[in-house]
Design brief:
eight-stranded mixed sheet
């Protein structure tokens, strides 16, 4: 199954993507963690995984990728990676890095000033997710870019489930409502996880959302917060995350 983690910038998407990946690995799944955020560069640090060659760079960067898109899809053409369904094991070895049983693939990043828009990365994300076909014991977790632009690009349409991460801010509540409406209009399953929650505000946060869509609460944790703040490998997991992952797997079936 393909599960996209969405939310506003700073809500904890990348942190929870790593924690979810570890929990699902513990539950017996093979997990491919996909970095789909062209701006955020911290996911590999939080996961403790050496940075692999970015998929966009493997395909020749923005210019090379655009040229390949205009070529016929042939077996010996590098763009043939999108010519049909593929498995995780079919992906270029240099584009996969792993640690603690978690595999990481990075779609691409903005490297230089004035290099232009991130549209090719959006196209690449959509084509990649449309072509990849996990088997029964495999999960693909996509740490998406912040906001809802990936909804507009149709990237979420290639996923089986959207998990919205909501932190204690009014902006996050408003974005969650927008994501819910957009997912509903696209007939896509969506659920929400409350993050960085303290007991005194949990009820207030729950009251801002459709209670039926909230599948779990992740408490504020100083160790995880500081490690995320400093961009270090996360050193712990939370029982609440394990329970959320069990619910995600149930919703995805």
């Amino acid at each position: 199954m393909k599960i996209e983690i969405s939310g506003k910038g700073g809500c904890g998407k990348s942190t929870l993507s790593v924690l979810f990946a570890r929990s699902m690995k513990k539950l017996g799944y093979r997990v491919l963690l996909v970095d789909g955020d062209e701006s955020n560069i911290g996911l590999e640090n939080l996961a403790g995984i050496a940075r692999p060659v970015h998929l966009l760079d493997h395909l020749g960067g923005k210019k090379g990728f655009k040229e390949k898109l205009n070529q016929p899809m042939m077996v010996d053409n590098p763009a043939g990676i999108f010519s049909g369904k593929q498995k995780i094991d079919d992906l270029p070895e240099e584009c996969i890095a792993s640690s603690d049983g978690i595999e990481l693939l990075v779609i691409g990043k903005i490297h230089d000033i004035g290099e232009g828009c991130a549209c090719p990365m959006g196209v690449l994300s959509k084509k990649f997710l449309a072509s990849i076909e996990p088997i029964d014991n495999e999960i693909i977790l996509i740490d998406s870019e912040a906001g809802v632009e990936h909804f507009g690009r149709g990237i979420v349409g290639e996923c089986d489930l959207i998990v919205g991460v909501v932190d204690p801010t009014a902006e996050s509540f408003k974005l969650a409502e927008k994501m819910h409406n957009m997912a509903q209009n696209a007939d896509k399953a969506i659920c929400f996880v409350l993050n960085k929650v303290e007991p005194a505000i949990e009820e207030v946060m729950r009251n801002q959302l459709d209670g039926k869509k909230v599948i779990g609460v992740v408490p504020k944790d100083d160790t995880i917060f500081i490690e995320s703040l400093e961009g270090r490998k996360l050193s712990k997991t939370l029982p609440e995350v394990d329970e959320i992952c069990r619910k995600i797997l149930m919703v995805s079936k």
